[in-house]
From TrEMBL:
Membrane-spanning residues: 6-21
UniProt keyword list: Chaperone, Membrane, Transmembrane, Transmembrane helix
Pfam families per the UniProt record, alphabetical: DnaJ (PF00226)
Protein's name in the database: J domain-containing protein
InterPro entries in the cross-refs: DnaJ_domain, J_dom_sf, Mito_inner_membrane_organizer
J domain segment(s): 50-116
Length: 121
């Protein structure tokens, strides 16, 4: 009986992860950047941009969602796979990597959240 429960649980979580990954991937594929358009990850003049915005995740997103979003963005914008300007892809990857490293570390994430609160006051 325990083996059946384990198998069902494993299948359920595998399906749930696949479903979330598929939704996030389709969401990010709609944000392809060509040579003429501005990147969605570009920091606009005077616009408040956070690491959460760069990875397109909510502020309360768990680490698992951040990791999936990072993986999807890396697959989309990696300079070896990117269909557009390679320099633009490198610039975007620097933003993605910096944002991921800040949000995946609990201490850095807490500091970033505190910084966001300061900016909104």
């Amino acid at each position: 009986m325990a083996e059946i429960i384990f198998i069902v649980t494993t299948v359920f979580f595998s399906y749930a992860f696949f479903y979330v990954f598929k939704r996030i991937k389709s969401r990010f594929q709609s944000h392809q950047v060509d040579n003429k358009s501005e990147s969605k990850l570009e920091i606009d003049n005077g616009k408040f941009q956070t690491h959460y915005d760069n990875l397109k995740v909510a502020r309360n997103a768990p680490d698992s969602v951040i990791k999936v979003a990072y993986k999807v963005l890396c697959q989309t914008y990696h300079p070896d796979r990117f269909q557009g300007n390679k320099m633009e892809a490198e610039r975007i990857m620097k933003i993605i990597n910096r944002s991921y490293s800040e949000l995946i570390d609990p201490d850095k994430r807490a500091k970033h959240d505190a910084w966001i609160k300061e900016q909104k006051m």
